[in-house]
Every structure is written in C-alpha cells, then in structure tokens.
Amino acid sequence: MEPSDTSTSSHSTVHRPLFTSNMEEQFMSTLAKEQVKTLTKFSGSDFEDIIHWLKHVEEVFDRALIQPSNKYLAIQPYLADAALKWFRFNKSKIPDWSSCKLAIVKTY
Description:
Strand order of the largest sheet: 1-2
C-alpha cells in the first residue's frame, strides 16, 4: 500500500498518494532545471532588451528554486561579449543579486 497524506474536513476524509505529489514535484524541478540550461545569453548589444531578458531569467530561476544569493552566481554563464566583460570588471563592486540587476539595467 502506498503512503498517503490524510486531510480531514468536517465533511469527509481525503487520501492523497504522496507518490504522485513527489513525482510531480520532481518533474517540475527537473523541468525548471532544464529551462535554466536553455536560457539565452545576454551580450549587451543594442538590439537586446535587458529588462525583458532579466524578467525571463528571474522567472526561470524562481521556478528552479534558485535562492537570490545563488542567482548572482548562476547568471554568469549567461552573459557574453560586452556584458560578460562588464560583469568581470564590475563584480567586485556588486555584492548581491539585487545590486547586480540594478547595475546591469543601468548599464544596458
């Protein structure tokens, strides 16, 4: 017999298999991690929209449950060309994810 989560209300008892819930959670986690792998790089060119790119990155990182303290590290492989050079030059002045977002938006 599968383990189950029993929820009781004033009218009925509901049994939900934990196996399905855990499988769904694992699937969503795997899907989010795959989305992180497929993020497009930001190079800092004139035709790229930094706001749009950052919003998309933030959504994907949130779905992957990446903590703000790790987002600052996780973004680095997704920077290219001028944006990557900018980041390398300025990273000592950028202490966290919020500061990183503000600085990159101000620059691009």
